[in-house]
Structures are given as C-alpha cells and as structure tokens.
C-alpha cells in the first residue's frame, strides 16, 4: 500500500530502520524507469558511503541492468559526470553533486521523473536537498518525490518544514506496533537498566556543582537568572533567561558584557554536566581540556576550583582507570551475552551494537570491551572529525566498517550514530543505548 501511494503522490515514508524503506524506494524507481523510457531517476543520500550502500541494496531488488545505473560523487571529474547524466538513466548521488551539476547545466532537469531523498529529515533551510527541488521546479513540475526517514522531525513545525521543502502530498507512517508491520519484525525484549552513581562520580558532581554555582550566583546578583540551585538548570532555560536579559536593554556596556560572559560560561558548564553524567570521565576530561581554548572560559580555567580541585581530580581518576559506572555495566552485559552464547553453542554467531552520542565515550567503551577478545571482536563507527581534538573516520573508512560488520568480520560495533544502510546491515541480537 505504501508503494502504491508513492507511485501516484509525492510521499514521505516514515518507517523504523530495517523495515523496508530501501525496498519501497527500489520498487518505485523501477516503475518510473519502466514507465518513462527517456526519464531520469535520481536517488540522493547524504554521504558517499550511504550512496554506495544503497546501490547494492536497491540493485538486489530492482531488475534494472547495471549498465543503466551510475554512482556520482564529487570526486569524479565534471566531464565524467556530464557524460553520465546524458547516457545513464538511474543515478545514486550525494545532494551537493546533483545540486551543483543542476545549477551548472550539466543535469538534464527536463528529463527528471523521480527523485528519491534518503535521510529526508536533513531537508531543511538551504541544504542541497532543498535546492535541487527548487531548481527542478523552475524547469518542470512533472516529477515524483519520494522522501525516506525513520525520524522526520522532533515537532510539528520541523515536519511541516520538510513537507514544504520536498513538496510532500502524503505521509505514510508506520511503527513496529502497526498490524501490517508486525509480521515482518523480530520479537524483542526491552530492558531498562538503572545504574547508581559510584563514589567517584558523586565526588566529581559535588566539585563541579560548586564551579557552576559561582556563575549562577553572579547572574542572580545581576537579577537576570532566577534559579538558586545548579541542579535545576538546563540549556533551554538558560537561553530563555539570556534572551529576556537582551530584550530588556538599558544597561551599561561593561555590565552587559559581564552578564553575556557569565551566561556563556554557565551554558557551557551545563553542557559539561551532561557529559559527566551520561558519557563518562574520559569525555568529561576532554571537555575540561578544551575549555582552555575558549575566550569566555579563561577566567574559569584560572579559578581555584577548576585548576586546583576539579581538573586534577578528573585527571587522576582517568589515569587510575576509574570510570563512569555505566561503562562497567556495559562491559558486564556484553561479556555475559557472549559467555552465554559460547556455553550454549561454541559455533554460534552473534552481533552486538552499542550506541553513544559522544565519540570519546565510543573509544572508551571499545577499549574496555577489547579486553574480552577473542570472544568480543570490537570495532567503532564515528562521524568525520569536526575539530582538531577529535579523531573521526573519513567516508571511505566508514564504508569499510559497514562492510566488515555486515559480512561478520567483527561481532561488536560501538557507534556514535548510524544512517540508513539497506536491509540486513544493522541487525543485532543485543543493542545497548
């Protein structure tokens, strides 16, 4: 029913990962390729690894000759891409390649009949996804849009923005609990594990709270912040109080500059609290070290609490191998999983996936699990480096990790995030968030 809708209306398909978005895209693309012998069908994915993955996944479904299909990336020469646009009919490409070639006149926009947008939630603002649709509309309104996303938006305005940008006329939404989806999903057991704070975490929280309290007290003294306890702070609340201060006006420049400075410092410290509470000591230490390079944090880093108490304490804990109690629990769960598997059937295969939002904690988790080799064969998947202190994977390395995990080279993946990757790639017997 979803395919039928997508054939005749611009459709946003919202399905959980692994439930068939790629299959739907392949069937729709095949039909437009068959219906329009001179038409161009374009599948756009946000990164080169995803482009390569989707070619393989779609080809396993579509009965289209490989000679009709072309992968296009920014690494290819313009002359190569121009010739491909003329000669081929089905394309898998990154958004910027399509956008740039369309604006340069290399892409025959008048022949576009179907546009598939993977990871469609990225279609915001002036992103290349949106530019392609806008540019195509100036030439022809007669093309189908199929948008794919497991997470189209966090709120109604975000979803509406996506709908407007991609000319969506229909939404097909399914969850794992829908009757027409349940027959195709595996059973799963969800368990919430509550991990109490250990002595080291409680001590760090206490010292760090005193550091935050310095800035909170100053802002209270200026009459621009109304919380008395740092435990009540979160980023959204601070930003609202800062915006209210800015709207008020009527304050001398030196005083206003000091308030802006204190808001910036406290907002950053609140972010550090999340790293400490959620991601562990190593990520928190990296955060504290990075503060030294921030202009607004110079006073903070020269203070006694930071310089003589907090930083030395975190450094000592990390050097001694002390860690967030969640890391101990993850190690315990994964080791027990493979131990049970080995006892039941020494030849059995299993895959485990562990997700963390912060790349430094990914490295910590992987290092801890590496102690359990050869039963636990761990690999990491992180995004590309965003600053000089972070080591990421380039897109070629990401593709290698995807292929290695898919084919069973390693059995435990620790990742910051996973994009769509076609059926069967991100399946596991144990998944830890």
From TrEMBL:
Record-given protein name: DNA helicase
Keyword Zinc tagged: no
Record domain Helicase C-terminal: where: 329-433
GO CC, one annotated term: nucleus
Family: Belongs to the DEAD box helicase family. DEAH subfamily. FANCM sub-subfamily.
Keywords, in A-Z order: ATP-binding, Helicase, Hydrolase, Nucleotide-binding, Nucleus
InterPro entries named among the record's database cross-references: DEAD/DEAH_box_helicase_dom, FANCM/Mph1-like_ID, FANCM_DEXDc, Helicase_ATP-bd, Helicase_C-like, P-loop_NTPase
Record-linked Gene3D superfamilies: hef helicase domain, P-loop containing nucleotide triphosphate hydrolases
One Pfam family of this chain: Helicase_C
Domain Helicase ATP-binding: 2-170
Swiss-Prot/TrEMBL GO biological process terms: double-strand break repair via synthesis-dependent strand annealing; interstrand cross-link repair
MF-aspect GO terms: 3'-5' DNA helicase activity; ATP binding; four-way junction DNA binding; four-way junction helicase activity; hydrolase activity
PANTHER family membership: FANCONI ANEMIA GROUP M FANCM FAMILY MEMBER (PTHR14025), FANCONI ANEMIA GROUP M PROTEIN (PTHR14025:SF20)
Subcellular location(s) of the protein: Nucleus
